[in-house]
Amino acid sequence: MDLRFDPILSIALVLVGVHFIVPIVYYLYARFRLLEKPWNLSISDVYKPKVSIVIPTYNEAGVIRERLDNIYSQDYPRDLLEVIVVDSMSSDGTIDIVREWSYNHHDIKVKIISEEDRRGKAYALNNALRYASGDVVVIADADAIWPRDALSRAISILSDPLVGAVSCLKKPLKPGVMGVEEGYRQYYNILRIAESKVWATPVFHGELAVFKKDLLERIGGFPVDIGADDSYTATRIALLGYRAVIPEDLWVYERVPSRGYTSWRIRRAQHLIQSFTKIIPEIRRAPKQFKKILLVESYIHLVNPWLLPLATILLLTSATLHHNPTSIVVIGIGILLLTIKPYRTWITMQLYLIIAAIKNLYNKEIIWIKQSK
Ligand code: GDD
Ligand code: MN
Prior knowledge:
Helix content is 49%, strand content 13%. It has 373 residues and is of the alpha/beta class. Strand 1, helix 2 (64-72) and strand 2 (81-88) form a beta-alpha-beta unit. Helix 8 runs parallel beside helix 9 (261-279) and helix 10 (288-321) crosses helix 11 (325-336). The radius of gyration is 22 Å and the shape is globular.
């Protein structure tokens, strides 16, 4: 074998190395160092704020009744709850179902806001915010299901004066349906919890996202120019110096699309990329512990995926132009490894992020197609 020094091959190997080492080291550090840390929360049982639960809806007739029942059966005091359904011109009768449900449940306050056109989820949330009378505002996506104690547990964490926002971990409602592979979900969840223990996680979930209202007002409400209303809002609250946390045992169920799983994941990746991009100019103002998290997560979402195609191009160049057999072997190994599931899942995620970044250049998906679930 010809073992001449090949600078192109060397650069490619460095890129591949960095691509895998950064997330792996971050994960190991999170798993074995940060996860052991105490929560350092000062929780008060007397904290029972008035809560406005906002359900944004666009054509949710199939699920909205079950969602309202689910909220109704929460173990949080009902007289402290207010449900605000904000609908953006659904054409499937969502609002009629909400009206009928409200008529049959007089012991819970329901406000219905019917928008005259569809301007996206965040816009609708801001609209709801104006009508919210609670001290706490909760985003409750229509297609999610909460365990009975989900809300009360989130609120109890919010009782810490330093906590500004709380969210959840997610499970697919029907196990076994297409979903992110188990391994990836574990990786993802551990990062969320570890980051929360340190200070805050920059990734939140609209299936259950709880915010102190005064903080929402301080940051000017939800962002209407990007899609990640949940993650970006949590990040902004963390930048104000409050914690935005996902506790380790607060699970909610989400419906996963029956078709179009890939485009669903790509859209979510698009929104996360938008959130991390929008936050870049503010990273320097972040509280110390959170700054590191933001730097690493922004890197992992915005830069790291691109090292792979870059390395592939270099390897192909070195293999074809310089006929370097080592490059051919490296490419071969990269392809062979695809038979290993965690590796394949990881590569798929990277592809989603790359496609999402490209799609963001021409369509930000602020208003997205409703997928059947
Ligand atoms: N009012 C209103 N107007 N509600 C909307 C609109 C709109 O234009 N578009 C979507 N919604 C509602 C849906 O009815 C649902 O209750 C919720 O917003 C989330 O929409 P889904 O269609 O379920 O999207 P998803 O599950 O892929 O969204 C995920 O990612 C988003 C950001 O990328 C969730 O995590 C969302 O919470 C998150 O905002
Ligand atoms: Mn959803």
